[in-house]
Design goal:
two-stranded antiparallel ribbon; SRP68; signal recognition particle binding; single chain; elongated; Hyaluronidase domain-like; cytoplasm; mainly alpha
Length: about 425
């Protein structure tokens, strides 16, 4: 160390001093220490915003040390792989600094440079080491796509959404930095904000839906967001075969449906109350029976009141449609539970259609009591009572769908719906009989 009693000046590391690889390790350790402290400050900055200034200074110090490392190694006789790894590491440090400064073009350039080097190394290194470089590439991708979105790339947000959902399926959302998830060190709140903005902009394009020959206008913001989320998740569901992943998507679908139904119900209740108040006032001729909001609405203009009351049929139809969607998603989820509960012959890895295999297996069980016992023995559920309960839930859901106003009268595949109801009742009876010996 150099300097005075009041100030310490570290000794500058020059190429002539480097006689061992540990000198390089010390410099890398210095960079990592500054970076780690910056990430700690970044996590605390949400509650203490002033810490972002300290974080920026630590990242600047890390980038300065990285430049010194680059200058140092340029005068050393290092092998090609080491030089490439150092260049990628230095690009990454600078990319993180620009990313936190929200300098998206420079951050994207630096991170893509690091990604290109790591992908090049993947082609030449031994297989035992490839997982390390694959992890680094997967860690860089979300930041690159985030930068691209902020620059103006419309496809970047959908890529981020896919990365986010794939990480959720693996259950690695709790500790983003240390698990090696695709989200890497990208701040979860930033990603959530981005995805919320994208979904809101996409939801603006949904103005109406077609159901049972009716055109239903969708004016409520919650309903538009819910329908857009369901559309996105259904598209994602089409490419999945693993039952666990499909169940996770169905659970998310059901949560979205419940929230949308609650919002529409609140609007429906408000309009119904206004209708009852207006009817009472018209019948008695006494405006004092109205509440203050309804009184002002009535006094402003009859046409405005009529426009509000005309919303009721549309809101009721939208409410019914969302209930239908919720029951349909519940039915699909229960089908997957049945699929998992059945024999290993069934599509635990998504090789065949569940419905086709199910009918074939159950036909065999109806033909022979012995075949039925074999089927139950090979199930992941030891007891036939469990399968009977699952089929009972399918029957109840179908009955609730059939009880929705207008479904039996206007459903195009009503015969198919009745046939499914009868079939699942038969499946339930089979397992009830098996459970009683």
């Amino acid at each position: 160390m150099l300097g005075t009693k009041s100030k310490v000046v570290p000794k500058k590391l020059i190429p002539e001093m480097v006689t061992d690889s540990r000198f390089i390790t010390l410099k890398v350790f210095e960079i990592e220490r500054s970076w780690a402290f910056a990430m700690k400050l970044n996590s605390e900055a949400y509650t203490e915003p002033r810490k972002r200034f300290h974080m920026a200074s630590r990242l600047t110090k890390a980038a300065r040390s990285a430049d010194q490392l680059a200058d140092l190694t340029s005068h050393l006789n290092c092998d090609a792989q080491t030089m490439l790894e150092l260049q990628a590491y230095i690009h990454w440090i600078h990319g993180i600094r620009y990313f936190e400064k929200k300098d998206w073009p420079h951050a994207k350039y630096r991170l893509e440079s690091a990604q290109a080097i790591y992908e090049g190394l993947l082609k030449i290194i031994e297989k035992d080491m490839r997982s390390v470089y694959e992890y680094r590439v997967s860690e860089l991708l979300p930041r690159i796509r985030y930068c691209a979105h902020n620059i103006g790339d419309a496809s970047a947000a959908s890529d981020l959404m896919k990365m986010r959902s794939s990480d959720k399926e693996l259950g690695i959302e709790k500790n983003i930095r240390t698990t090696g998830a695709k989200l890497g060190v990208l701040e979860q709140r930033d990603l959530d904000n981005l995805l919320s903005q994208v979904m809101a902009s996409q939801a603006q394009s949904i103005t109406e839906v077609q159901w049972l020959g009716h055109t239903i206008p969708v004016k409520l913001e919650h309903a538009r967001l819910a329908l857009n989320s369901l559309k996105e998740m259904d598209a994602e569901l089409a490419g999945l075969t693993d039952p666990v992943s499909r169940l996770a998507i169905h659970e998310a679908n059901l949560k979205v449906c419940v929230e949308a139904i609650s919002a529409v119900r609140d609007e429906l209740n408000a309009l119904t109350a206004a209708e009852l108040a207006a009817t009472a006032a018209a019948t008695t001729g006494d405006i004092r029976t109205l509440t203050k909001p309804n009184r002002s609405r009535l006094m402003n203009s009859n046409s405005d009141q009529q426009a509000d009351l005309n919303k009721l049929p549309r809101i009721r139809l939208l409410y019914t449609y969302l209930q239908y969607l919720k029951l349909s998603k519940t039915f699909s989820r229960n089908l997957i539970h049945v699929e998992v509960a059945l024999s290993p012959r069934m599509s635990l890895v998504g090789k065949e259609s569940m419905q086709t295999d199910e009918i074939n297996l159950k036909t065999e069980s109806l033909n022979s009591k012995k075949d039925s016992s074999v089927l139950i023995a090979s199930s992941s559920h030891a007891k036939p009572q469990e399968l009977a309960r699952l089929y009972d839930s399918l029957v109840q859901t179908l009955q609730e769908i059939a009880a929705i106003p207008g479904v039996f009268q206007e459903h195009r595949d009503i015969d198919y719906l009745q046939t499914k109801l009868m079939a699942y009742r038969c499946f339930r009876y089979v397992y009830i009989c098996d459970s009683h010996g």
